[in-house]
Amino acid sequence: MSGTLPAQRSLGRSGLTISRIALGCGNFGGVGSAPEFFGRGLSEDQALALMDAAWELGITHFDTADAYGGGRSELSIGRWISSRGIRPRLTTKTYNPVRAGGDHGLRPERIRRQLSASLDRLGVGHVELYLAHEFDPEVPLPESLGALDEAQAEGTILAYGVSNFDAPQLAAALAAGTPQAIQNSCSLLERGDEREVLPICAREEVAYLAFSPLAGGWLTGKYCRGEPFPVGSRMTQRPEPYRALVTGQTFDALDRLQAMASARGISLAGLALAWLLADERVTQVVVGPGRPEHLAPVGEALSHPLTTAERAEVGRVVS
């Protein structure tokens, strides 16, 4: 990898540090949490090869969830740890979407059961960060976060946080417990958290972790105006989060961003990652490549960092 991985950042008020870049493992043995794709995504051999490549490039934090691939993602990471004799830092999560069946949510007894199962699949005694994967309106937050406080006291998690929470939900979580991080979708094409969530994070010292930094492939240049979506892409598998991007305005913005990236001698994806890494409010960016060569934009982003003025110029394209 060209460039140097940025220095680690504080994980909220936990006393821990966290790397600026993590390997997202949501496509190991599936496509995220969607049951209809369990057993698809990357095979175990492909997942092991991707983890090898990420580690070689200096990416030492892996991000997963108990629902990814129906547990296959955690199993693949556990087998990689066992076979390589290497221990990355780990983030995992629990909730499980309602569509996956009846066993979902953030009931304290379920959190304890799911955390134990995750540790077994990963083959470790603790994870650095454990996240409530979604907001559960059926369980009072003090009960859910109380279970996470207990796990932290026991040492099975070193810190905890939330994911896919909006600003009011994050504020409620902070009133109910001590979450150290929030992990939400954030990219040049998805900037809703700038208005309320990021200011809360800055005020309350909550680490902000950005997933889907390339907006499901929209910031890689793979989707072209007037052309069918590539087979196997997110827009042919799980398009729901990105349907709103299918507009002429989006393609106009992508054309301008591609021109800016080309002028810097990097890919569109490299520019999109550089834009996020230049934001001091973003603690960690979770990248989810499908193949080792898809890690190249990380190196581009590190080798071509954006100044504050350059970041603002890029951001104005889609503001």
Please characterize this protein's 3D structure.
It is a single chain. The protein is of the alpha/beta class. It has a domain at 17-179: NADP-dependent oxidoreductase domain (TIM Barrel), CATH 3.20.20.100. The chain is 38% helix and 14% strand. It contains eleven helices and ten strands. The chain has helices at residues 44-56, 72-84, 108-122, 141-154, 167-176, 197-204, 234-237, 248-264, 268-277, 296-303, 308-316, and strands at 9-10, 17-18, 21-24, 61-63, 89-94, 127-132, 157-163, 181-185, 207-211, 284-287. An eight-stranded parallel barrel has the order 3-4-5-6-7-8-9-10, surrounded by four helices. The protein is globular. The chain starts with 8 loop residues before the first strand and ends with a helix.
The appropriate CATH architecture of the domain at 17-179 is: Alpha-Beta Barrel
Average pLDDT, all residues? 93
- CATH class categorisation of the domain at 17-179: Alpha Beta
The level of helicity is 25-40%
Biggest β-sheet, characterized? 8 strands, parallel, barrel
Strand tally, please?
A: 10
Which value, in Å, is the CA radius of gyration? Answer: 19 Å
> Strand percentage, roughly?
5-15%
Number of helices: 11
Could you give the distance between the termini?
A: 31 Å
Strand order of the largest sheet: 3-4-5-6-7-8-9-10
User: Structural class of the helix and strand makeup?
Assistant: alpha/beta
CATH topology of the domain at 17-179: TIM Barrel
Quick one: overall form? globular
The helix-strand sequence is EEEHEHEHEHEHEHEHHHEHH
